[in-house]
């Protein structure tokens, strides 16, 4: 798809066609959203769809998850006129942190960190990532926020798959994603 083209009718999720499929093999995510982020109207419409369910909700800060969640999360924070907090993979923050081990979508054991001075008790945080596949990464972010006394105001991602972990997150937290119901099975099966 042309990075300047804007369709005459823009239904929810039209911008999903901007994402490029994986050509490098199983150690990589199956879709790359960076072309979506390059398209001004696509990014704008994606953010509008993601944030619409949270209109009127109390959100004090947006937190994005390392690394592609930083792009979408920072854009969401700017749109909402809120601060942005980076939740990082271990070893990148030079300040006091809280850490949480997790297993990512590829089955690799990792550790996530967040600075301890950014979350105060009762702070309402919207968690943003590009994708929730197995839910392991997002659950680690949720655990970090809640351990520090924050409240998860919601979870937003381009796609939340209907995996066991994705379903658990959707059952326990207010969630938003961009995949229309008719396309969800294709995204769950990575087609």
TrEMBL record:
UniProt domain Phosphoribosyltransferase: residue ranges: 51-178
Top EC category: transferase
Subcellular location: Cytoplasm
GO biological process: purine ribonucleoside salvage
Pathway linked to the protein: Purine metabolism; AMP biosynthesis via salvage pathway; AMP from adenine: step 1/1
Cellular component GO terms held in the UniProt record: cytoplasm
Catalytic activity entry: AMP + diphosphate = 5-phospho-alpha-D-ribose 1-diphosphate + adenine
Key words of the record: Cytoplasm, Glycosyltransferase, Purine salvage, Transferase
Main location, first listed in the record: cytoplasm
A matching Pfam family: Pribosyltran
Family indicated by similarity: Belongs to the purine/pyrimidine phosphoribosyltransferase family.
SUBUNIT field: Homodimer.
Name of the protein described by the UniProt record: adenine phosphoribosyltransferase
Species per Swiss-Prot/TrEMBL record: Vireo altiloquus
Source lineage: Eukaryota, Metazoa, Chordata, Craniata, Vertebrata
